[in-house]
Amino acid sequence: MKVAIIGAGSLGQSIAKGLLTSEALTSLYLTKRNLSSIKGFDDSEKVTLTTDNVEAIKNSEVVIFAVQPRHFEGILNDLKSYLTKDHVLISVITGFAIERMEAIVGTDSYVVRAMPNTAASVGQSMTCFSTNKKGKEKSDLAKTVFSSMGTSLEIPEEQLQAATVICASGIAFWMRLIRATTQGAIQLGFEAHEAHQLAMQTCFGAASLLKQSGKHPEEEIDRVTTPSGCTIEGLNEMEHRGLSSSLIKGINASFEKINQIKTK
């Protein structure tokens, strides 16, 4: 599998780190206008760094576009004459519909639209993706690419905006919850580094429990909430203060914003 990432910014670099763990990867081209920030990837024999997008495309089978949304249309127009019918085009760009890509590269191109998150760099991304009609033929290849970064799920394109909020923005939401738990632990007397470790590992443990057991969160909550105990006391106070309501409102606010981006 020969891959090029056009636009090795924060997300592009996270994807690259995930791909480099895959045995299926034979070569990886990373492009950026300023290569100094990605010099660390030089350590891998599979990686080539370049400022030349055309060079990257000519040496790749799978092209992942991870540029700024406002630049994507121009870049795609500049590169379309170098794309062949065999290239698989993957966009991880917010708000840029498959139909807009097809208008530039044609409906006979393999087009995949996806949204990994930055946990791709540690092989733990939740990536949702959609394809055009032609791209359905490459769904298995897309799964291979995304599975090297974590877990993947193929969904209808109309759900991709919502998936972006839950999975990509969701990383920041969970980070904020971990930070708040850390602050609470510090207030209870732990050193900052200890508080961070406690909050982080407990969050990881909670997610691992649900993933391995397949249970609903309330089932696991019931296991640790005893009558008149400290856990239910804390949970009820959080709910009185609007914990669940705030999270849901925040998710909906992000969804409204992403739909504004889509229409610009």
Structural commentary:
The relative contact order is 0.09. The chain has helices spanning 10-19, 53-58, 69-79, 98-105, 139-147, 160-187, 192-213, 217-224, 230-240, 243-263; strands at 2-6, 27-31, 47-50, 62-65, 88-91, 110-115, 125-131, 150-154. It is built from ten helices and eight strands. It is of the alpha/beta class. An eight-stranded mixed beta sheet has the order 3-2-1-4-5-6-7-8, with helices on both faces. Strand 4, helix 3 and strand 5 form a beta-alpha-beta unit. The radius of gyration is 21 Å and the shape is elongated.
Shape descriptor reads elongated
**Which stretches are poorly predicted, pLDDT < 50 over at least 5 residues?**
none
Q: Write down the overall mean pLDDT.
A: 94
Assembly form of the protein: single chain
Largest sheet: 8 strands, mixed
* Strand residue content: 15-25%
- Number of H/I helices: 10
**Helix percentage range:** 40-55%
The SSE string, one letter per element, is: EHEEHEHEHEEHEHHHHH
Give the distance, in angstroms, between the N- and C-terminal Cα atoms. 35 Å
Rg (C-alpha, Å): 21 Å
Q: Let me know the number of strands.
A: 8
Instruction: Return the structural class.
Output: alpha/beta
Strand order of the largest sheet: 3-2-1-4-5-6-7-8
